[in-house]
Each structure stands twice: as structure tokens, then as C-alpha cells.
């Protein structure tokens, strides 16, 4: 069976046929032409019309065959569209936008790039890195144009650091159960960043938002209050826990410095013990803490305060939680531990929007997993020097976007 016969019996494009197929310099070229009397279709509105002119020959990279590169060769026609009142390139069924890859290849590359590094994808499909980027870009663009966001009611706003140089991206997730997905990525973590999201989302969808969960970051909370009028603002419990953990670690580091001259401190190498929740400690770590307790350490005191705060989340109502907080706050500010006092005051100041969790039980816990995924994408994609590329990589992997049909 000749290759042309195989092609004809496995792929068909309505109105087009395979004219010829040949091997040249280690590459397979497949020539395509329109069927006789086939009218071209407008790529914008889909109306049929007569041919205005025929452009020069173009190539589309297709899936390799036995690792041999394959190209479709075709001369696109232009149509004087009666409906659009202009001259438009015809609709080409294997093509997607301006991308010079076939739809089938775009879909394969974009799907693989959701789980593999772009470099690996390029190797597996015998294409180059730029072609992978173009494929992901086209697929994401199509996915964004075809996604439905009309029912989005709960948002989680978070940040991820890109590279080591304090370069941040703001990520906006949909928080609904079973529908956690990345909705938007923007550069920086400022007011301006969130403003561009709000502009993109538009007043209609903004007014539908019922709840927003984010860190106690004034840049975010100010914008949420101003532009999402119907949303309950909830400061994320996981971020609060992280801030308290950081305070405990500050106490530990200061204590190590204090005892520097007294030889090896028993605190060295204990960082992760103090960050864990007590029920997650291993048997060895429990004994370790027991020993450290006897040493009457500041770090141990800070850890106890951190552990006590967790009772706050177990409360049933905002009223009960507020009472619980008062008890904790007094203990924290009288602890004589500066970092603990500081975080206690900070929580007190933001308490109103922390208590909202008891009426609107949302948190960014689920996005933590997504954020870890984002970090690993950022990490394994060493070639993402441009933020724009990083953004499409994240949208492709985490946006739950549909892929274009073949
Ligand atoms: Zn048209």
C-alpha cells in the first residue's frame, strides 16, 4: 500500500484531497489541494464564497512518521467574503490561527507539555523548542476563547515566585469544589497586577463573585473591596499559618544567635520540627521536643503559642472564634517574643476578614497543590526567561482548558 493510499484512508478533510506525497532530504511532504468545484469558506464567519486569489505555497508541520518529519504543503486561497465585507483567508481544517503546525500536532504537543518539560516534548516529537512553544500558545489561546467562566463565584488569589530574583506572578484560581482551575496569571504582586485582572474579568463577571480568599496583603485586599462589591473577603488560613510559622522560626534563629558562644546549640537542625503540627510529629521528634522543653527555650514557648492558635480554626462560629482569639492574643503579646507579638498584632488588625471564614468556608489550601505544580513547572522549564512564556505554560498545565477538536 502506498503512503498516499494510507493517508487517503485514514485522514480526510472535507473539500480537500491529498494530491501527492514524496520524500525529499529526509522529510516527507504531503501536497494537498481543494476538491474540484469546492468553494472556499471564510475563516472568520464560515460563509462560502468564490475564490479571490491563491497565495503562495505554505508548509504545516505534522506529526512525524517513523521519526521522519512530515509537512503538509498547500496554497491557501482568499475569499472576498460577502458577509465580512473584506478579503479573508479561507478556513483551512488542519490549521489553527497563524500557527504553522497542524492541529493534530498542536494538540499532541500541548497535551504532552502539560506533564512533561517542553525540552522533553520537543525530543519525543522530533520538533524544536520554539515549535512546542507555538503549539502551546495556540492551544491555550483556543482554550481561553472557548472556556466557560459564567458560573465562577469563588476566587483564590495567590502569588508564586518565578526564579530566585524576587520576581513574582499573581495567580487567580477558581475555588469551587471539583472545579479548581487556574483562571489568570499576571506579572508582579501589586495593586496594578490585580487591576489588570479586574479589567480582564470585566464588571459583569466581577459582580458575580461571592467570595475571595487571599493573603493579608493590602495591595490585594484593597482592590478586592473596591472592585468586587459582592464578594466576602476571607484572609487565607494557610497563609496565616505560614506567617505564624515564620515567626516561630525567627525566634529559633535569634535564639541560636544568642547561644552562639555557648557551643553547639540544641536548636540546630530542629527547624522542621517546629514547623510541623504536633499530630504530625514522628516518635523521634516528639522525644526531641520533650528534651527541648526541659531546656526552657524561647523557641519551645513560641511553638506552644503557634499550636494554641490552631484552636481558633476549630471553632464553630465567628463569635466563639473571636473569644478564642482574645485569649490567644493576650498570651502572645505577653510572651516577650518579638516576632510572635508582631504577628499577633497583625492578626488582630486583620481579624474582621479572618473571621469571615466561619460564614464563607473557603481557603487556598487546594491551590497549595496547584502552586506546587506551578513551582515545578517554573523549575523544570529552565528556558522560560520570558514571563509571557511562563504564563502560557501555567495556563496550559493548570487551566483545565479544552483542546481544539481535530
Ligand atoms: Zn466572512
Low-pLDDT parts are: none
Distance between the termini: 25 Å
How many helix segments? 15
Anisotropy-based shape: elongated
Q: Give the biggest beta sheet.
A: 5 strands, mixed
What is the rounded Rg? 29 Å
Q: What bound compounds does this protein have? A: zinc ion
Order of strands across the widest beta sheet?
A: 12-11-10-13-14
Topology as a string of helices (H) and strands (E): HEEEEEEEEEHHHEEEHEHEHHHHHHHHH
Helix and strand content put the structural class at alpha+beta
What's the count of strands?
A: 14
Average pLDDT figure: 88
In terms of DSSP E residues, the strand content is 15-25%
Tell me the count of domains.
3
Helix content: 40-55%
Note the main attributes of this structure.
406 residues, alpha+beta, Nucleotidyltransferase, domain 5, 3 domains, five-stranded mixed beta sheet, four-stranded mixed beta sheet, elongated, binds zinc ion
Amino acid at each position: 500500500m502506498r503512503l498516499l493510499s494510507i493517508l487517503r484512508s485514514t485522514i480526510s478533510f472535507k473539500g480537500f484531497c491529498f494530491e501527492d506525497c514524496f520524500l525529499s532530504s529526509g522529510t516527507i511532504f504531503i501536497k494537498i489541494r481543494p476538491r474540484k468545484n469546492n468553494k472556499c469558506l471564510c475563516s472568520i464567519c464560515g460563509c462560502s464564497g468564490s475564490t479571490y486569489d491563491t497565495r503562495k505555497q505554505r508548509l504545516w508541520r505534522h506529526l512525524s512518521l517513523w521519526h521522519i518529519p512530515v509537512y503538509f504543503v498547500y496554497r491557501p486561497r482568499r475569499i472576498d467574503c460577502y458577509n465580512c465585507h473584506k478579503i479573508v483567508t479561507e478556513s483551512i481544517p488542519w490549521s489553527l490561527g497563524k500557527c504553522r503546525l497542524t492541529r493534530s500536532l498542536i494538540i499532541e504537543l500541548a497535551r504532552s507539555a502539560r506533564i512533561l518539560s517542553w525540552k522533553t516534548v520537543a525530543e519525543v516529537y522530533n520538533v524544536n523548542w520554539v515549535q512546542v512553544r507555538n503549539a502551546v500558545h495556540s492551544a491555550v489561546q483556543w482554550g481561553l476563547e472557548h472556556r466557560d467562566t459564567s458560573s465562577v463565584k469563588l476566587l483564590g488569589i495567590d502569588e508564586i515566585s518565578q526564579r530566585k530574583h524576587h520576581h513574582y506572578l499573581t495567580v487567580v484560581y477558581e475555588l469551587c469544589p471539583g472545579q479548581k482551575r487556574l483562571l489568570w496569571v499576571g506579572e508582579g504582586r501589586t495593586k496594578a497586577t490585580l487591576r489588570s485582572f479586574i479589567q480582564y474579568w470585566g464588571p459583569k463577571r466581577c459582580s458575580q463573585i461571592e467570595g475571595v480568599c487571599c493573603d493579608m496583603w493590602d495591595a490585594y485586599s484593597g482592590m478586592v473591596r473596591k472592585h468586587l462589591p459582592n464578594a466576602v473577603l476571607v484572609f487565607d488560613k494557610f497563609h496565616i499559618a505560614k506567617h505564624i510559622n515564620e515567626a516561630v522560626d525567627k525566634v529559633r534563629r535569634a535564639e541560636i544567635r544568642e547561644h552562639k558562644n555557648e557551643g553547639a546549640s540544641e536548636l540546630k537542625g530542629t527547624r522542621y520540627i517546629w514547623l510541623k503540627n504536633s499530630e504530625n510529629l514522628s516518635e523521634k521528634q516528639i522525644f526531641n521536643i520533650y528534651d527541648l522543653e526541659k531546656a526552657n527555650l524561647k523557641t519551645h514557648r513560641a511553638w506552644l503559642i503557634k499550636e494554641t492558635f490552631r484552636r481558633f480554626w476549630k471553632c464553630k462560629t465567628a463569635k466563639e472564634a473571636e473569644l478564642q482569639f482574645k485569649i490567644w492574643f493576650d498570651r502572645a503579646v505577653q510572651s516577650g517574643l518579638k516576632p510572635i507579638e508582631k504577628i499577633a498584632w497583625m492578626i488582630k488588625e486583620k481579624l474582621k476578614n479572618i473571621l469571615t471564614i466561619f460564614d464563607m468556608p473557603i481557603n487556598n489550601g487546594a491551590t497549595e497543590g496547584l502552586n506546587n505544580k506551578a513551582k515545578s513547572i517554573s523549575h523544570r522549564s529552565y528556558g522560560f526567561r520570558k514571563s509571557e512564556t511562563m504564563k502560557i505554560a501555567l495556563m496550559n498545565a493548570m487551566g483545565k482548558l479544552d483542546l481544539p477538536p481535530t
